[in-house]
Each structure stands twice: as C-alpha cells, then as structure tokens.
Amino acid sequence: MAPPKPNKAKPTPSTSRGLMPVGDRHVTETQRPSRRDEHGNLPTTQRAIILRNGKHGAMGTGELVYSRRPSGREKLELLGEDLAEKAKTAVATPFRIEQCLKIADAQFNVYLDDICELRDSDIFYDTIQKEIFSRQASSSDPSILKDRNIVTTAIGSRVHNSYMLASIWKLIFNGLGNLKGDGLTNETARSRLQEDAALRTQYLIVYDTVNTLVDATQSKFSLLATTTSHFQQYFRKTEDDAVVFDSAALKNSYKSFIDSIVLELCLPDSIFPRPILTHILQEALEEAPRESKRFPQALWDALGDLSFAVQLQDILEALLRIPAAEVWKRSPREMPEEFQQWVDAQVLSEGAMSKLDGAVEFIFPFENTKRQSVLDKLWQTINSSCVEVAGSDMDALWNLTGERKRIPRWTAPAPAGGKNLSLVPAKGGKKAGPSLGKKKPLAIGYTDGNESGDSMPSLETVSDSDDDASESGESYWDTDDDDDESDDEGYEDGFDSETEDLMRDYLREAMDAALEHPDFLDPKKKLNMDELAEERKGNPFLKMLGALRGRMFSANPTLKTTDRQMPGARPATRAPSEPGVSSAKAPPTGPSSTPPTNRNVTVEDVEDEDNVSTAAKKKKKKPKKKKKPAAAAAAPSDANEQASTSPQAPASPPPATTPSSPPPPAAPANATSPKKKKPSAPKPAPAPAPRAPTTNGSATYLPHMSTTSIDLTRQQSAQSAHSYLQNEHVAEPKAKTKSRPAYGNLAPITERKSIFSKVGKNKQESGKQKEEDKQNLGGWFSGLGKKTKTYMHQLLRTSHDDKKGLAPMKWEQFLKIMRDMGFEYDPSTAGSSVRFDPPGEGARSITFHKPHPDPTIQPVMLKVFSKKLQDYYGWNEDDLLKHAAA
C-alpha cells in the first residue's frame, strides 16, 4: 500500500502588484536651466566684472574673480563703453536694401492699420480707452472716461500721432524704393555713394528722415514711461511742461540695471547710441524675463516700434562708417518739399485737433462711439476742422489719400503634396530648415535600473502645448509664470551688504553737494563739474546726476518734431545730421535762424506786378469802395502789418540797416500806403529831401520811418507800389529792356523725380489674378492640420467656431497658424512688435504686437488680428469652410 501523500502547504499569496521590475518612483520636476555662474551672477554681470577688473587692474585683465557685484548704472557704463569701442573696429551691420524696404513697408502699414481701427466702431472704443489709461498713473479708474476734456484730448493726439507716423514711414519707404530703382544694391552701395554725388545726397536725405523718425518714436516711448506704475518715480514735470529726471529716485535708479537703460532711452542726448541701448535692454530682459513685467502693454508696444526704427537707422549707418562719411554728414543739403510739407502738417494738424474740444459733445457718453453712425459723425467733424485750418482733410494733409484702400493679395502658390511646410525660426531669429510638422513620438520604456528604452512600442503624444512652444522658437522657461516664486531669473538689483554702508555715504555726500550748489538740481542752468572738490569727483551718484541733469523732453502727448508755430518758416538748407538730432529741429547753416528777406527787387518786377494787378481789377470790375472790407480777410501776415501801425499797437523799434546798402528814401507826407505789400521793397533810388512820415507805414518794409507822428485824419485807399512811386516822383520811369533769354531757344528741362515721390505697383487687380489668389489660398487652407484648422476657425470667427468668438487664444497657437501658413518671422527685436513675412514673392509683410505681460490674445485683440489678415491677404470664412473638409 502506498504511503499517503503529504499535505501540500498552502501557497502564501503575494503582496506584489508589479508585473515587471520598475525603477525609481520619485517624481522629479524638470528644473529650468540656470544662466548663473557658481557665484550666482548673470552673464551680463560676469562680463561687467571682467571689464571692470581689466579697466581698473584689480586682478589682471580678463580674469573673472568673485568681487563686489557692480550696480546697475555701473554695468550699463561698462557694457555700453565696451560695445561702443567694439563697434569702431568690428564688422559693421551689412547693408540690405530689401530688409530696409520690408521694415519700412511693415511699419507704414502698422500705423495705417491704426488709422483704420480708429474708424471702426468695433475697435475705436477699446483703443481710445487703452490710450487714456496708458496716460494716467492710476489706470484702473473707469470714471476718467466721463471727463470730456481728457477724452477729446486723447482722441485728438491719437489721431494726430497715427497720421504723423504713418506719413513719415511712407516717405521713408518711397525714398528707399527710389534708391533701389536708381541702382543702389547691397554689393555696390558703398562704391556708388562715393562716386555718385546725387545718389549720395538722396541717401543722406533718407538717413536724415529716419533720424527724425527715431526722435519721434523715442518721444512716444518716453511719454508712456512717465505714466507707468514703476518708471514714473524717475521723472518729474517742470513749470514749463517739460519732463526731467527726479533726483529723489537717484538711489533706486543707480541700483537697477534695466531702469538705468530705460532712463537713457527716455532722456535725449544719451552718450550711448540707441542701437547699443536697445541691444543691452533686450539681452537683459532675456536673462530675466520676469523683469519685463515692469513694462505695461502700451510701453511694450512703443518699445517694439522704437526697436524697428533703430534697427533701420543702424542698417543705414552701415554705409556711413567710413572716414569720408563724416564730411558727407556735415555737408549742407536742402530737404525735399515732401518733407517740408510733412513738417508743416504737424502744425496744421495740431491746430485742427485743438478745435475738437466742445465740438464733439455727441460722442458722450463715450459708449456712443460703439455705433458706427456716431463714429462717422466724429470723423466728419475731424475732417471739417482740418479743412477749416489746413484747407484739406486729414488724408490729404498727410499725403495718405487712397492709402487706406487695400486690395488683399495672397500670391504664394499652394505647397506641393497638400502639406504646408513651415519654416520654424530658432532662438535668436535664425530660421531652421523646413519641417513637415510631424510630431515626435513619446516613448515609454522598460527600466530596471539600466538604460533600455527600446523594449516598448512608441506612443503618440496628444498634447500640443509643449510642441507649440518648441516650434515657436520659445523655450518653456521663457514664458511668464506668475506662480513661480523661485526667482531664479530675478535680477540682482541692489547692493551687497558690505557695500550698502559705502553707498549710503556716497548718497549723503551727493545730496550735500547738491544743496551747496543751488544750480545743481536746476536742469536749465549749466554747472561746471570741475568746481566740485577732488574727493567728490569719484562719487558715483554725483557722476550719475551730472550725466542726467539738463536732459528733458516735452510732456505734450501730441508728437511734434518741429518748433514752428506757423507753417512755412523753413530753413533754407539742411544742417549736418547726426543720430539723435531731429531733422526738423536742426538749425540751418549760417548766422541767422531764418533766411534773409530778398530786397533786391527791380522796377521791372514792380511794373510787372502793377500790370497784372491792373488787368485783374479790370476783369473783376468791382468798385474800389468794396475792396476796403476785404483787407480784414487778408493773409495773417498782412493783418499783422496793419496791426503793427494801428494806434493801439506799440511802435516797434526799427531794425538796424546794414552798412553795405543805403537806407530807403523817406516817404512823402501826402502818400497813402498800399493795401497789400509784398515781402520785399523796391530798389532804392537816390534819396530826395526828407519828408514827413506817411500814414499806415510799415516798419517792416521802411525801417527808417517812425510811427510816433501819424496823421489819422488822412483818407486811406489802396494803391499799387508802382503808382505810389510815380505819384511821389521817387523813381522816374525808364525804358524796360528785356534781359531774359527767349524761351524757345532753351533746351527742354528734364524733370527729376523727387526722392520721396510715390513708388510702388498699380493697385488695380485683374479678375484673373483674383481667381489665382483664391486658388492659392484654398491650397494652403486644405493643407492645414486638424488642430490648426480649429485655431483658424477661431481666428476668423467662422460658424464652425465652438467658442463663438468669445474665447481668447494663446500666442503660441497663433504662431502655429502663421507657421503652417508659411510665414517666417524674427523675434529678435526688443518689445512686442513681431513682423511676419509671407511666403509669396512681393507680398506685403504684416506686423502684430505680442500681448504682454500675459501672452494671451484677448477677444478684442483677436478681432483686430482677424481683420488685419482679411485686409492684407483675403482670408475669409467662405474660403476656409470650402477647403476645410478637403
């Protein structure tokens, strides 16, 4: 019999739930790559320490040591001086005429878009509201919209500024186009300027105009900085409505690196070139993106526009960095008539906008402007005021007639294969190679402590957030994160503990020196820094005060680059131009600020004038008595002349006559003054016997006369200058000899095209071209991916948009749309301005302002983006719906 089998032990149930060995289960958060060194210094601080050690010989040239951290102002001076020295010997920025044209065309359309938005009732209210809030230190109070004076002033200055900047960008674009048409190429530009004097003059005129533009955009940036919550502490207004540096914030401005750069950008006449300042500011903000929150949206937009203007100025200066160019810049040149008209338009437009106060009561409450009928009436009032002052509407005054009417064009042919190739720009603006946009699979591998990642099949990622950020050329650590309080990228604004006491002593010493010299804090008075004691010359706060004092700009929000009060007071020639000096404000060459009046008028000219006036009188057949009230409606100059000799007006002292010309003869007592005088006097004849002064004589044209004894009982009547001379026997008639050549014998004069004459293609578009554009656009729409089509429906606000146009869009999502439509872009300039270049040849570039500090496009801004794309390229709902399902 077989032995019984032993009872089997019951198996112990396993407590393990793992099917395979696993690795470390601790979840570790990916850390942002730090830019700091082992001492906690940012790259700009490291370079500043190297430069300081090399400059002062602390530990040997070029040796980086851990020492006292430099202040913000000291860093700016070290880096700025180093870049300025390198710019003298380094390879200059290459001249690219095509890049200049793209910048000018895109920026011209930016301000032209602004004018169009001011005429759109869907956008006007929000635009002016942001304009008003950007000018107030406390921008959260909506009751300010009830102040009618503030609202009308904001409307007038915004309209004026948009027209002014659009007009000058048009001048620059046309000038650059004419230079290219005259054969100025990238390869032969330098040699052509040296050989062709006429082409060189045209180039310098465009260069002068760009300098004037940079001054205007800098003024716009400066004004917005004075009303921000952070930067307003550094400025104060003077009694004559000028803005200067406030010495009370000296310590804070000396500590902060970014604030020191902004101060130099705001105040005119900086010792650092503007390209260097914008470059250092951009680099500083890339190091510490959290610090960009000091810039509100309006100031960030103004910084972007200033950066593009400075970039264009830097490209044009590339051809002028030779010894011969210094002589070219100092040579006098006459600015063209188009530029002079633009300067005159500033005065006339400012006068027209000042008449809006009290004439636009119908827009209040301000919400009325959301109705298109009210907004159209407002623009009728604006144009009527402009016609009253300037004789033309706003478009004609600023030479922008017909420019607001665009013909949408999409010239890029559809990509082959139905897939859109997107050119992805890498960090720093370099464009990567073409990519089909295929997403990289996310592999989940088996691990047992060793590296083996090929044992599991790959999975496709379903999220596009990280993919969007990587494709856009923006690292995920560059985005703003309000919840991140690690402050790893924060700036070292402040002093070390061991230097805090030293800085406090320096500041106290600087304030004592300011009190000892009452003129020290007065920006209008000159101060000799050599008067300070030797031991105080090394004080950094005194040095900074000396560098910032006396620099001021106007607090008027209406931009103006001229000091003219009336149009027409123009200098005869253009003075030498330098960057940072306004073209309109530069003094003319010669001892006088105004051109001298030509007094060498012959009797022949007077007789010709008399014949013309006599013929006109016979043709009109009006009685002489009715001409008397017409004198009241004469030109302002005539009215001023009559007022200067009236009994109520004080007698003006006669101007001194030059010894080279004899004084004009005294007028007889029984002569009457002419009704209208030309700004010139007849050529003096031999002086007769002295006579009594005439009535109503103008000292402007008869400087030897006195207005102390005037016979007010004489009857005044209009009389020509020729009749006056004959009646008083001042000049005997003489035979009139022809000294001019016969016009039939003259060679025909070749009409030279102005440097600012309009260039460009004909705006007429044939039906065949329009149909071809639709086919091209349909091919691009059909090649979009599923997610991109969803974003496109939201952007164009189609009926397939699930969010009904009420949801915002991320900036990365908008970039994905533009990349998949073939656009290239270069986010390498400071500020929010981003220019997109379409794939088609000759197509118009488009510029958008990136939302800041939150990179989210709100519904109102998204509507602006949508309308711009429709106006530029014809993107519309019908074409998208037609090809979306393809």
UniProtKB/TrEMBL annotation:
Region (Disordered): 1-45, 409-498, 553-780
Residue ranges with Basic and acidic residues bias: 23-40, 762-775
Biased composition (Pro residues): 650-667, 681-691
An MF annotation (GO) of this entry: mRNA binding
Compositionally biased tracts (Polar residues): 449-462, 705-726
Compositionally biased tracts (Acidic residues): 463-498
Stretches with biased composition (Basic residues): 616-629
Protein name as it appears in the record: Uncharacterized protein
UniProt source species: Dentipellis fragilis
Taxonomic lineage from the root: Eukaryota, Fungi, Dikarya, Basidiomycota, Agaricomycotina
